């Protein structure tokens, strides 16, 4: 195609590796190979029934028209109350915008804050879409490699090492996909000093907030008064309420930012469906169901760790949250792409190669805990044996 037809920031976008890998698994399955896909990034649970019934009732009652743009007041009030009570974030319902998934909230925030050529620091390994969303917005993603040995902790030296006069934004994700790391209070304090010193903004992706293990609690940077004016907090219903397909996420930010984000929202989305927003209100009441799912992920992590302990080629930091096992595999000098092919060939198990998550993932593979327990355990056993371990 002739140069210049496609916007240069869009032309360079690459397909998401995790989606490609999932498609590869599906194709092999259709060809009749026994595949154990440990790639999924969504809970293998149904959406709680009360949420589904609410949506059906709403549809039957004609809730099929345009809804209030920022989100129906009932839902925004519930979100603002949740953010105040659980996260210590003070913004009112007027500063909440309900979005089609957290992903679009992240895009809106980045697109609104980044000017052409601005740099966004993205601690890695990280979720596959941040860099592309920065690039699509005309910004420059600066992938900051964190270390397996430090459990991927953020330090002042690391942050300073990539900061330039063009740095505008820091993108945080805690609990982290893929590593399962949760930012500690010490890391948050380092981040606070750093953003104040360099006059930066934060997009804080807290989509796995409720999937935390060993009694941990996630800390929201937006709760700290010294930086609250600089933080866009993103969350949603996909993971904690098993509502990936419903596409309900949200963001909150200080008025001077959220009002501008809303301009972009208005001109691109209008609103998300009213019946899904009504159903999302009900999801907040499904506390027991959410806790059952969280507990299942924690149990699976514990089982997975026991199985993997029998293999010296595999090392890992204990997953603190989200629903993934992030493994470093030292086997015949293979990188993550070779490893995932090797495992697929020899075991039928498919995970996402670490290279998909930026620097720091070269020898790593992400296996999902959001799969049927029998498949998970069988898959991990096969991996251990294929890598010379014992059960
Ligand atoms: C870290 C992270 N952020 C955001 C998202 C997107 O969430 P949503 O389904 O609400 O768009 C995902 C989904 O995999 C994720 O892993």
Write the layout of secondary structure elements.
Layout: H1 8-11, H2 17-30, E1 36-37, H3 49-60, H4 73-87, E2 96-99, H5 101-113, E3 119-124, H6 130-136, E4 140-145, H7 156-162, E5 167-173, H8 185-198, E6 201-205, E7 231-236, E8 249-252, H9 255-268, H10 274-283, H11 287-308, E9 314-315, E10 324-329, H12 336-347, E11 349-350, E12 352-353, E13 364-368, H13 373-386
Parallel strand pairs: 1-11, 3-4, 3-5, 5-6, 6-7
Antiparallel strand pairs: 2-8, 7-8, 9-10, 10-13, 12-13
Bound molecules: pyridoxal-5'-phosphate.
Pyridoxal-5'-phosphate binds at residues 41, 101-103, 127, 173, 177, 205, 207, 236, 238, 244, 249.
Which shape, going by the Cα principal axes?
Answer: globular
Total helical segments = 13
How many domains comprise the coordinates? 2
Major sheet description = 7 strands, mixed
The CATH class of the largest domain is identified as Alpha Beta
Structural class: alpha/beta
* Low-pLDDT segments, ≥5 res: none
SSE ordering: HHEHHEHEHEHEHEEEHHHEEHEEEH
Oligomer classification: single chain
In percent, how much strand structure appears in the residues? Answer: 5-15%
Report strand order across the widest sheet: 2-8-7-6-5-3-4
User: What helical percentage do the residues reach?
Assistant: 40-55%
Taking the alpha carbons of the first and last residues, their distance comes to 54 Å
Radius of gyration: 21 Å
Number of strands: 13
Q: What's the average pLDDT?
A: 96
